[in-house]
Specification:
The chain is of the alpha+beta class. A 3-stranded antiparallel beta sheet has the order 2-3-4, covered by helices on one side. It has a two-stranded antiparallel ribbon with strand order 1-5. Helix 1 crosses helix 2. The protein is elongated, with a radius of gyration of 31 Å. The protein starts with 7 loop residues before the first strand and ends in a 7-residue tail after the last helix.
Length: 149
Amino acid sequence: AAARRLCTVVHVTVPGPGEDPSIAENFVRSSGPGGQNVNKLSTKVELRVDLGRAGWLPDDVKARLRTQQANRINKAGELVIFSQEYRTQGRNRDAAFAKLQEVVALASIVPKERKLRKGLTKKAKEKRLKNKKHRSEVKQNRRKPKLDF
């Protein structure tokens, strides 16, 4: 049995809130849970990661992010992530950064290269033909002998 090749993973750590200028966060009105606070407080978090300025992201990870998360990237080249699951800004901010870390982790997996099958080797072809010839002889020996008069 052939050994399976494992995928290569590039480990990337997402900077925290306020640590990197390429990550901008905005707080807007949420449509999620919050009761009467929903109309008064801005708890929904909108993270915008400028992929062009994000020096903490390797170029190959950026390229995979652009293909995998194309629906989350706007025309300005920003990856936009929203979070409004919780009633507080802090928890929504943490959830948004967790989503960002998850998206980056998925893009960090380097896909393994697929190798095309080239067909049988010369040795394998010879072996197959030799075996085929042998089978043919075995089957011919099972036949009744032909008597010519």
